[in-house]
Every structure is written in C-alpha cells, then in structure tokens.
Specification:
This protein is globular. Strand 9, helix 7 and strand 10 form a beta-alpha-beta unit. The chain has a single domain, classed as 3-Layer(aba) Sandwich (Rossmann fold). By secondary structure, it is α/β, with parallel strands linked by helices. It starts with a strand and ends with a helix. Helix 1 packs across helix 8 and helix 4 crosses helix 5.
Length: about 240
C-alpha cells in the first residue's frame, strides 16, 4: 500500500493507493476529518477498509485532505479546521433550530477548496463524479454534505459520520437534485457535541428529498464505531464497476 503526501487542488492530502504506479483507479474515496483533528486523522480508517476488503486494493484511491486552518494559534497544537467553531457556544446552544439554520463563516471557502480537490482528483484519475464516494466525520461530514449537494453531478455515495444539519434552507432547496443518492449516515445517541436529534433532522431532510439513507444509530458519543466501518467497506465495494 502506497501512502503519499501530495497537494490536490489547494489542499494537502494523504493518499492511499495500492495500484501500480501510474495506474488509474476505478473509484475515488474522499473523506474529510473533523474539527480539531490532525490532517491525517482518518487515514487509519482508510487502511482498515483495505484490510477488511482486499478487493478494494488496486481499484480504490483513498484521499484524505487536511483542512486549511491551523488551530495551533487557538490552543490546539497540530489540530486543523475547515472553519472556526465556538465550542462553548455550541455546547451551550439548546435551540436545535438555531444549529440547523447556522451558516458558518468560512463554509464558502471550505466548499470552494473541496470542490477544487474533487475536480482535480477526478480529472487526474480520469473518472466521472459518479465514481466518487464522498464523506467525512463531524465538521468534515457537514462540508461533504454541502459539496455533494452542489456538485454538477451526483457522487457515487455520501458518507456522514457524526455530522449534523446546518444551512437548512439551502440544503432543503438543493437536496431534491440528489434523489436516489445512497447515503450512509451514523450518529451516537449520546453525542455530547452534535445532538442526535439534529442528525435525525438531517436524515429526514435527505430522505424526504428522495435520497436512500442508511441511518445507523449507535449507543455512544462522537465516534465512528466498528459496525459503521464494516458498512462503509461494503458500500465502497458495492460501487466498484463489475
């Protein structure tokens, strides 16, 4: 398994690829890490997928972009963010509608950067958007949702781990464009950061727009449980061309 650090578009990325040098993959997997995590936070998850599903090796290129903001000046050495979050305000917010309607400052820039990565990565691989599985954890899941709804064409699937509903009016307007999209969504019932009820609201918004949402609730907090890793591996394998 090759692990390469490279810049794709404007983002530094870790790339896992078991294919021969210069070979084109059949599928791209792009996963965005959460707020405060290092840029390589989800690489181990990618390696786990290849271990659980050997048929992915040589056919799937997994890309893990590092968010553009360095949180070291904000007291989180090595941490990165797609946009700044006031954690104290987040934990103190009881009005779920306020969270659902939030449009974070910095979302537009993060969206532009991830869209640029997707465009460059698909061009380099010679693949259409329909061969891209896009997803993320927490803040990365919010960004993945924002981008998936705005791509010119639907991705192969969308994977949302401990994400939440934000930018509600715009997402509700755009979501019908993704009718039929397969979505793997998981959330802990005891999540202390992003309320479970808001995850259910996101599930309902996507389902009502026609997306095929596989919603996986679990007993736990802000995490990706083993069961969900298995489902992600199966989903990625199912998107490989026969």
């Amino acid at each position: 398994m090759q692990r390469v650090i490279t810049t794709i578009g404007e983002l530094e990325c870790q790339v896992l690829d078991a294919g021969a040098k210069g070979a084109r993959p059949d599928l791209l997997l792009i996963l965005c890490h959460g707020f405060g995590a290092p840029g390589d936070d989800l690489v181990a998850l990618g390696a786990e997928l290849f271990e659980r599903r050997p048929e992915l090796a040589g056919r799937v290129r997994a890309i893990f972009p590092a968010a553009p903001m360095d949180l070291s000046p904000h007291g989180v050495p090595g941490g990165r963010a797609w946009w700044l979050v006031d954690v104290e305000r987040l934990l103190g917010t009881q009005d779920l509608r306020q969270l659902q309607n939030d449009i974070p400052e910095g979302l537009a820039r993060a969206r532009r950067l991830l869209l640029g990565l997707v465009e460059r990565a698909t061009r380099d691989a010679g693949l259409p958007l329909g061969r891209v599985v896009l997803g993320g954890f927490s803040q990365g899941a919010m960004l993945a949702t924002e981008v998936a709804l705005r791509l010119d064409e639907a991705p192969a699937a969308l994977c949302l781990f401990s994400g939440t509903l934000i930018h509600q009016a715009e997402w509700r307007r755009l979501a019908p464009r993704r009718s039929g999209l397969e979505v793997l969504q998981s959330h802990g019932r005891q999540d202390p950061l992003l309320p479970f009820a808001n995850a259910e609201a996101l599930r309902d918004l996507l389902s009502e727009a026609g997306a095929k949402v596989d919603f996986v609730p679990f007993s736990g907090g802000h995490a990706i449980p083993y069961e969900v890793v298995d489902r992600l591996a199966a989903l990625v394998a199912s998107k490989l061309p026969k």
